[in-house]
Structure formats: C-alpha cells, structure tokens
Amino acid sequence: MAEPEERLVNLALFIAASEVSVTADECRRAVEGYPEDQDETAFLRMFERDKEQLRAAGLSIEVDDDGRRYSLDRAATYRHPLTFTDDEAALLRAVGAAMLGDKSFPFADDLRLALAKLMTGAPEAPAARVGVIGADESPREQGAAVAALAAAADSRKRVAFGYTNARDEMRDHEVEPYGLFLRDGRWYLVAKDPSLDEVRTYAVARMSAVEPNARAPKTPDFDRPGGFEVRAWIALPFQYGPPDTRRVLATMRLSGQAVRRVATLTAEQGTFLPAGPGVLTWRIMVADPVALASWVVANGPGIELTGPPAAVDAMRSGLAKAVDLHAER
Amino acid sequence: MPSGDSAARARRLLALLPYLATQGDYALADVAARAGADRATLAEDLMTLSMCGTDPRDPNKMVSVFVEGDLVTIFGPLPSLDLPVRLTPGEARALAAALETAGKDAADPLLGRLIAVAAEGLDPQELASTVKAAFADGGAAGIYAVLLDAMTTHEVVRVRHAGAEDIHERERLVRPWALAARRGTWYLRGWSEGSEAERTFRLDRISSVEATGRNFDASEVPDSPGEFDPLASLPEAPRAEVRFALDAPDLTPRDWPGATFEPQPDGSVLSSVPYTGTGWIARKIASRLGDAEVLRPIEVRKAVERMARDLLGEEQVS
After folding, report:
1. Whether A131 and B293 lie within 8 Å, measured CB to CB
2. Residue that is last in its domain, among A55, A77, A99
3. How many H helices and E strands in chain A?
C-alpha cells in the first residue's frame, strides 16, 4: 500500500495527465494508494480530503457542472514563465537561506515551497553568507506561535492562549486575531478581545498554549474590520498605552541618516512633510513627552525635537543633568 | 486521511516535479541547491517520487528518477505536472515577508513581478496588511544587493558610514564577509582596511556603498561568517560601571545586552555594562536624561559629557 503522500502525488499526476475530466471512481481504480476494501462512503471522504490537500498545494482542480467529474485547470495551476537576472537569483537564494535559517521565521515551510516553485530554471548562484534572527526570545516557540496565529487570522478563527503581563500576572484570553507584526525582535498580535470589545496588542513571547478554535474549521468565527492595516497598530516607546492616551502632538525635523532609515526608525507612524532638500518634518501623537525626549537622544543623530514644549524642556533639563553628572570634578 | 506531515510532504514532492522535467545526470547537491532542500531530504523525496506515477504497472508512466550516491539520473519524461505550479496565498505571504526583511517592501518591483507571474490575483499590499515582518527603508535594498554581490565575488567595497556618535560620515574600505540581521537591524561584518581590524557596521548607518573592483583573498573569510552575532563580542568587550538612580525604568538585560545589575541599599542600581564603542554607550547613557551616571572609565564619562553638551548646544534641541 502506498503511503498517503504517494497517493496524493499519484492523484495529482493522474488528474493532470488526463485529457478529459475524470470521475472519483476512475481515480479510485487508476490511482495507487486507495484501499481496495474501503467502502464507498469512506473512499469518498478520503477523496474529498485529498482534493482539498492538492488545492492547498496550488493545484486548481475543477468540478464539472454535474459535480461528478474532475479536471485540472492548467491556466490556473501553472505559473507564468519567469526569468531572473543573476542578481535577482542571488538575492532570492540569499534571502531564502537566511530566513530558512531563522528559527523564529514563522513561514519557513511556505517559503521553502515558494522558492522551490520559483527557482526552477533560475541561474546558479553561490551560497551567500547571510544570517537572520528575527525574534530573539525563544525564537522557535515564537515562530511556531506566529504561524498558528497567522493561520487563525487568515481563516478568521478565534484563538485561546494564556498571557503573562508585565506585572507577571497570568490570565487566559480568547481573542479574534486580526494581524501580526515584528518589531525590535518581538512578534506582536493585534486582536480583538470580545469580552472587552477592544482591539489590543499582545506580545507573542508572553503567550502560552496558543490554541486556535478547531471546531468548524471552514466557518469563520468573526469578520476582520474592512481596511484593517496591522502597521497602524505599531506603537513606538513614547506611545505605549491605549491609543486614547496619545493626546500630545510632537514635531521633529529629520535629516541625514535619520531620513535614510526613516521607515525602520519611525515604523511608518505619524505623518511626514518635506521640509527642504533631504529634510522631513515628522508629526506624531505622543503619550509620554519625557519618553519621547529620551527616544530622540537614543535614536539620533539626525533628529531635531521641535515640540511639544514639555518634551523639549525634558530633553534640555535631562541633558543638562547628564552634563552635571559627568563633568570633571 | 493524510496527516499534516503527509500533506506537507506531498506539497514538497509536487514542488519538486518540475526539477525532473529534463532528462540527464545531475549532482544531488546541485538539485538540492536549486530546490532549496538539504541533500538527505531531497534523496529521500526523489526515491519516493520514483514510486509515483499514473500507472504502477507501466514503467513509462512513472516518475523516471533514480538516485545513487551523489548522482540523480532522470531517464524519462514526467507523466504530467512538468511545469511549476503557482504559489498559494501562504507561500506568497512567506515570500513577501522574507523579501521585506531584505529591504524590499510590498511596493518593490521584484516582489510585484513574482506575485504577478506566480500568484496572479493576489495583492502584495493586501498580503502586508495583516503581517508586517519588517520595514524597508528606501535605498536599503540597494545597499544590501551591492554588499551581497561583493561578498559573493570577494570584492572590496567603499562604504560611507556614520557611527552612533558621528555627526559626519566617514569613508571606509571594507572587505565584506557577511550580513546578519538582529532585532530588525542589519549588520555588515568585514575587515576594515583603514583600521586593519574586523569591524561590524549597521547597514542603516551606511549612506552609500560601491564595489572597488579590487578583490580580496576568499580564504581570509572566517568559517560560518553568516552566523555571526553582532552582540557576540560583548563578553570580551570593555565594561563601564554605571549607577542608575532610584526607580530608573527599563533596566532589563534585553535593553542592556550583557550587563549585570546590582541593587544598592539606597535603591539605586550599580551596573556593569559592556560596550564596543564609546559612541554607543555615550548615547545610551545620555538618553537616560540624567538618571544614569558612568562611574568609570573616565573616557566614557567624558564621552557622555561631550555628547550631552553637543546635543544641548548644537543640533537636537531647538
């Protein structure tokens, strides 16, 4: 008896090779791997699941109008021809090797398959020396949890998990996962807690026993709000706390290397206006002006704080104190 | 019913089929490199595929592949599925997330082209709306690509770079060995010809890089350079003694890699902080806005004072 994966490959090859559409019974007779003593109902259940697995692999299996005959939609199954430059091939190989080597990368299996599908016929490129550690706290556990959370967000299934907050208090949660982001080596989940009717951000490293709702897997548990953008939920250190605590408008002038690294520096939060050649004015709502002042110093050079006065004053007095503490006695 | 493992393996086997479309002898290592698989797994997968086909009674309708040692022999045409299959939404998202990490965001032409060719109907912006794995700075992908190419060809590069303490950039000639990302920041490791020493540079502090056309000896590249940890040199780094005031926030090993913390009876905390450059630690201490004092060494104290004065007097407050 063929192994299940052999049966799946045999079924894919058979349907793809057939000039005409085929019935389930024809598949059963031709494809090696379906048990001969299996009753009709059990076979049809197995056949349905097999078709779903092949569709999940990217094969577009069509059903005739009568619902009894199956064929491969070749146009929808095969990708278009693709050519790479040497540089593009080298880049993809390097990125692939780096991300597949990152234990915290949640989509390693899918990436491996994507590259296998794309790189057929690509020019040879030497192995590159690139290493990535995306999430550095329990990377393997974070990667596995994010993979499960992303799948739940895609299928709109609720997720239960234990969560230990910053005060070391553990509580069980059941949430509706909307999206995920990686920031400063930590993955975060943006999800709605239906019991509070609030959308919150959870650090994945603080979660335990992540359990997507396995009941009725094809039936969504919730709707994600239209136009949802996970990046809008990323907070910088001076914005921590509920969004309604960000009541102060800060303005900064960015120049030099701060402009070059503006996306990673600002997480694309706030608004940006050109203020001359190579200079941007950045406006962003702030919860904690003192934390903003500290952040500006920590992330310079190239950031000039122009407001609010509370942050400018905190920066001046704090730096003056640092001078006093470190001046020669 | 196929288990999760069987289904995953079947997906892998199906993705391999187009690699078996052209008859001939191939090195197992080459096929593995092309397909992104390790050699042992690939050999096992190819052996499994050799038992698959559309009719087990007819050898001409089976996958005609044979593996012996390091040689893969493809001795007949595939029964079907000899073209690459499109990406699934999950595969497209994985690709987008990986490329984003290398500075190519959802608007990048390469990602757009790959999605258009291999996952028609999917929108890269839509993929990025629910999972954000990195932020791509304009120009970062170009710097990354030049360095990648120079690493491959062992070519010295000219880098314009400003460290944490530098207001002005400096030009350096660097033999690029490896790139590594840690907590979302990319680093270049290499040999600085001016300093005659191994150095690590943050890519987001590099404004431009160009190949010089001059090669260096590949044998000088250390083993496994791609696995270097930008923070790994901390145990041997010099240390500064720092006193944090009572109730100073954010004193965690994560924020202060390699540091030790000793609470004092008066509520302050004495800390031993490793540092690889005075610019880094001076900025870090200055950003505490007066709740931290470097006790020693004197050069770090002076660096903090200098940085705080510079920030007060020159550029960052108006």
Report:
1. no
2. A77
3. 11, 13
